[in-house]
Design brief:
Layout lengths: L2 H6 L3 H39 L1 H17 L5 H13 L9 H16 L5 H8 L4 H4 L6 H10 L10 H13 L1 H4 L2 H11 L14 H6 L17 E5 L2 E2 L10 H6 L2 H8 L5 E2 L2 E6 L7 E4 L3 H11 L8
Antiparallel strand pairs: 1-4, 2-3, 4-5
Helix pairs in contact: 2-8, 4-5, 4-6
Length: 309
């Protein structure tokens, strides 16, 4: 007997019962949906907190690289690059449990394909494979780190990165024959790579809520700000990429001219960023300029006098 025939034979009180059951099912479905959303937000928030130390380390490693021009942990960088592009090693002697973990790690290696060249480099210099492999790091924390490893801008990496990657091509035949690694190498050799703001890191707590945060009652400039990290010592060549009038203003500073008088100094402290402890607060980007240029820039942008000391 078809459903249509059964429904056509229902009495009025039976229709009422069906209506009540339908309402109860809808309410139960809504309750389950709300519970799922709460659990997702809870997992995202927990992963964000648990990954804080890792995220801070990645940021610190990147800052050290630009400050000193050399990798702090070159062995870890090499191991990561090889693991990311070759996957974990297999063996017939492995137990089923180890084989399953290796397979999960291999899938994590594949997930790095969603990152830009800069994201892969940032990851490779920060976390040893033993830390992020399946079984060592939870999938929620791994995903959180993966979603937030991207630098805000395209990076102009110090020469040591390019050198290390080309050395790997010479040392590892498997990498030399890898189409993915070949594309990766061509990306760093691309002369058209420019530091343009083209992407933004994803914040999982923003994604999970899917709503704009409520407008603050007071101006962010009135908030108490405590500095956590400072980054400086950019490559001196990066100043040449600044638009006017900033480029000339930097080149007129005493600091710039002193740095250039030091023959072996390839970096400059004329550019700096200050990161607050509260990651919801804005970052300050500072440009040093000559004294006279400071007055000219103040007039150019129409800045108003605020305080004196």
């Amino acid at each position: 007997m078809s459903a249509n025939i059964v429904l056509s034979q229902l009495k009025n009180d039976q229709w009422d019962t069906l209506g009540d059951l339908s309402s109860e099912l809808s309410a139960a479905a809504k309750m389950v949906q709300d519970e799922i959303q709460v659990l997702k937000e809870s997992r995202s928030e927990r992963a964000w907190k648990e990954s804080e130390e890792h995220r801070s380390k990645a940021q610190s490693c990147r800052g050290d690289l630009f400050a000193n021009g050399r990798l702090k942990q070159p062995v870890i960088f090499r191991r990561n690059i090889v693991t990311i592009f070759e996957g974990p090693k297999d063996s017939r002697c492995y137990s089923e449990d180890i084989k399953l973990r290796k397979e999960s790690t291999r899938k994590r290696c594949e997930s790095f394909q969603s990152l830009s060249f800069d994201g892969v480099i940032s990851w490779a210099m920060a976390f040893p494979p033993t830390v992020w492999a399946a079984g060592s790091m939870s999938s929620d924390v791994f995903t959180c780190l993966l979603n937030n490893i991207e630098p805000e801008m395209v990076q102009t990496w110090p020469p040591v990165i390019r050198d290390k990657l080309h050395m790997l091509t010479e040392d590892k035949v498997s990498l030399k024959e890898s189409p993915g690694y070949d594309e990766f190498i061509r990306a760093i050799d691309d002369p058209l790579r420019k530091p343009l703001a083209h992407r933004k890191r994803r914040r999982i707590e923003d994604e999970s809520k899917g709503e704009r945060p409520a407008a603050a009652k007071s101006s962010p400039s009135d908030e108490k700000r405590e500095m956590k990290d400072m980054y400086t010592n950019a490559l001196a060549s990066s100043v040449l990429k600044l638009p006017e009038p900033f480029k000339t203003a930097v080149q007129n500073t005493r600091l710039w001219n002193w740095e250039r008088s030091q023959n072996e100094l390839e970096t400059t402290g004329c550019l700096a960023t200050l990161f607050p402890k509260d990651n919801r607060q804005d970052v300050s980007f500072t440009i040093w300029c000559g004294n006279d240029d400071g007055y000219r820039l103040t007039d150019f942008f129409g800045l108003q006098h605020e305080i004196s000391s």
